[in-house]
C-alpha cells in the first residue's frame, strides 16, 4: 500500500522544491490538521461496535461478526496461500549493492547505482520519495486495519486466519518502504535527514481511515488501494526505464507485482462478501466511494510545507504516475470484477447504492475533462 492521488483534489501547477544542487533536493511535504469537526465526532460516536453499523442498521454487527467467523476456513484455504513463504520472498538486499562485498567492489556497485540515478528528474524523485514515506508509515496502517471487526486482534498475535493474513500482508508490504528507502539513500539524490524527519512526523500523526471498524469498508478500500498502487508503481517502473535507470525500474516493477498479488487477495475477499451478504456489501461499496478513496499518507508533514498533497498531486498527474482516469479505471475494474451491475434481489436501499456505484465512473471522467 502506497501513496495514491485523490482524483478530486484541485491540481496546482507549481512545484515547491528546495533550491540548490540535485543531490540536496528534497521533495515537498504536506501536513493536514488532525481534528474532527463536531459533526464528525457525533458520527464517530454513533457508529460504535456492537450497537449500530455505519448504515444505521441496529443489531447487525454481531450477525456480521458471526458471518466473518464462518469465513475463517475459506480465508485459510483461499487467501493465506497468496502470501509468499519468507524463504522464497525477495528482500531489499537482492536489488541493492551487496554489503558483504569487499570495499572496492561494494563502492563500485554504489557508483554504478548513482550513475543510473543521476538522470532522474526532480519531479520523478518527488513521486518516489512520496511513495517511500507513505510505505514507511506501515505501523499506523496495520494498527488501523487490526481494529476491523473481523480481525479485532487485541493480542497482535492471534492465530485467527484473518489476523494471520493481516500480519503476513504487512510483513510483505514492509519490504517496499525498506527497499525504496535504501535505494534513495544510496542514490545521493535527496536530503535523507529531512525525509527521515518526515517519516517520523507521519508515524507520529497516525492515519485517518473512513471505515471505523467495519471490515466491509476496510477490504473494499484496500482492494481499491492495492490496485491503484500497483498501477502507480508500474508506471514508475516504466518511467525509470525511460530515464535509463534499469535497476530502479526493476525495483518499482517488483513492488508493483507484490501489490497486484495483494489486490487479488482483497478482491477475492470482497467477491466472497458479495456472495454471502450482497445487500450490505453494495451499501458499503457505495458508502466508501461517497467518502472517496483518500491516501493513507495524507497526514505527511516535514515541519515546513503546508501543501504537500497539492504539490504531489500536480506532479503525479503531470507525469502520468497516477491520474484521475486511473482512479476511474480502478473503479470500473472493480465494478466488473464483482459483477455489481448484475446483482439482483436487493433491498430498495441496496438497489439505490448499486445505481450510485454503477453511474459513478462516467461522472468522474467528466470531472477530469472539466479540470
Automatic annotation (TrEMBL):
Any single GO CC term annotated in Swiss-Prot or TrEMBL for this entry: chloroplast stroma
The keyword Chloroplast belongs to this UniProt entry's keyword annotation: yes
Binding site for Fe cation 2: 173, 226, 259, 262
GO biological process entries: fatty acid biosynthetic process
EC number: 1.14.19.-
Subunit structure: Homodimer.
SUPFAM superfamilies xref list: Ferritin-like
Organism per entry: Nepenthes gracilis
GO MF entries: metal ion binding; stearoyl-[ACP] desaturase activity
Entry's cofactor comment: Binds 2 Fe(2+) ions per subunit. Binds 2 iron ions per subunit.
UniProt keyword terms in alphabetical order: Chloroplast, Fatty acid biosynthesis, Fatty acid metabolism, Iron, Lipid biosynthesis, Lipid metabolism, Metal-binding, Oxidoreductase, Plastid, Transit peptide
Compartment list: Plastid, Chloroplast
Function: Introduction of a cis double bond between carbons of the acyl chain.
Name of the molecule in the record: Acyl-[acyl-carrier-protein] desaturase
Top-level EC class as recorded in UniProt: oxidoreductase
Binding sites annotated in the UniProt record for Fe cation 1: 135, 173, 176, 259
Gene3D superfamilies noted in UniProt: Ribonucleotide Reductase, subunit A
Pfam families: FA_desaturase_2 (PF03405)
Cofactor: Fe(2+); Fe cation
Major location (coarse): plastid
Similarity section: Belongs to the fatty acid desaturase type 2 family.
